[in-house]
Amino acid sequence: xxxxxxxxxxxxxxxxxxxxxxxxxxxxxxxxxxxxxxxxxxxxxxxxxxxxxxxxxxxxxxxxxxxxxxxxxxxxxxxxxxxxxxxxxxxxxxxxxxxxxxxxxxx
Length: 107
What we know:
Blueprint lengths: L1 E2 L8 E2 L5 H7 L5 H40 L8 H5 L1 H22 L1
């Protein structure tokens, strides 16, 4: 049976594959390598979920509650909540950082 991979020149017999060529066509993958890849994927997923939970839930709601208290419930309301989500998250982040700084100064 003749075999001619693209860009390798004239066809040659599969039985006469050089060791370097065999490594290209039949790479052995150990179970440890497969488990390591799966473990890394699971850790990336958990990290993504935690970051989303922290940003979308904790920081967002801290910012929204703070802005509602400071503006006596006038901001954000209605459509402003969707339009100014980034500002709300930045406010929440600033409030959390300022709270940590104030606690560290006075404790």
